[in-house]
Amino acid sequence: MPVIRSTLPHQWNRWSRRDVLQIGALTAFGLSFSDVLRLQRLSCAADPQTRQPAKSCILIWLDGGPSHLETFDLKPNAPREVRGPLESISTSLPGIGISECLLRTATLLNEIAIIRSMTSPLGEHNLGTHYLMTGYKPSSVLEYPTYGGVCAELLNSESALPPNVAVPDFRVGGGNLTGSGFLSAQTRPFSLGADPSKADFQVRDLRISRGLTLDRLNRRRHFTTELDRMRSMANGQGGTADVVDPDLQRAFDLISSSEAQSVFQLNDESPELRSRYGPKSVGQSCLLARRLIEKGVRFVTVNHHGWDTHNDMYTRLKEGYTGARTPVGLIPSLDLALSALIQDLKERRLLDETLIVVMGEFGRTPKLNVNGGRDHWPRVFSVALAGGGIQGGQVIGASDASGESPKDRPVTPSDLAATIYTLLGIDPKLELQTPDGRPVRLTPPEATVVDELIA
Description:
This protein has 14 helices and 16 strands. α5 packs parallel to α14 (about 415-425) and α7 (about 215-235) runs antiparallel to α8. It is globular. It is of the alpha/beta class. The strands form 5 sheets. The protein has an 8-stranded mixed beta sheet with strand order 6-5-7-1-8-11-4-12, with helices on both faces. A two-stranded antiparallel sheet has the order 2-3.
């Protein structure tokens, strides 16, 4: 079975026999198949009843496992050891409360959907990360591709930038995940290797050594290609194989691209806008993510480290160990970043075509431990989504009174994967091939789309 590449792979499932006959008639008049698809997309855009898929996705990954009880699913009436140190505040949705540290996000809940009944059996970082980022439980024989890897494989992009980017890095869940899984290395996330919040921020692969020009780089690439071609001939391949190293090609494309050079210049943004996103890494990374999707990048992972809060949770989540009068901990920093990103995309009319997902690998234990923290808890946790044409202003599912188990409408990571792919216009039942020719679906057979999210 060939690998299917299409910006609208789910389209085939919606076409009737009549549609196919109409396409045949149109192509008979000289229109190509791509022309027909383009006309159909224009027709859908003119029809307000037809939902357009999101063009890109920004995943804000809360690495380490965020506490649902301190973010999106507080229990203000529970005992102190369950309730924890943070208060619940009212939001733009009547009767719905979230963390006191999500003050700005609380005013935007009409744009956000919260799933409070996520559930998984995997409470170890690497295993949980694989499940949440791929929709599949880990296998000893096969690593599955992440959402970003699938988007890089299936969604066309005319940008000189990589289709799958990680800011500031892709060191997630212990660092064992490649991102590409069984797909080619070219679908792996391009990791910046640098923090956009730092004054000396510079993307690792865009650095050119002093005295080295693009002409010299081009000559070096030519010599390298010739050496690889001769090595290919010596190995009996006749020099006809594609011998260009994909990482080398990508690095050269980035260095030689004016678009790539300019997109990472955060100083081009106004000081006021940069301040709205907040000074921390997650804020400036979200701002950079917005710039990247504007330039055609399909998937950006904003990796927000530090959420494995086994101890001193109050300080880590709220205050941030700085002694600053304004809290700059993990949650206030996320609040600035998420609220600014939603508002910025909306002001630029990009929110409906950009899916935002906020999640980590699991939640935290219902009861505080003796060190003032919470331990790993995958049985129930929360995920937030915005943009991408979702139905915002709702809470899906619920946990029980102590935040220990799903109370109703349990949603698995496989269900979430099917939903994310659907929102991106990708059929979750689509099959890709492993290197040995084995067909593998994008999501497990039991995966079910969360229909409440589909606007």
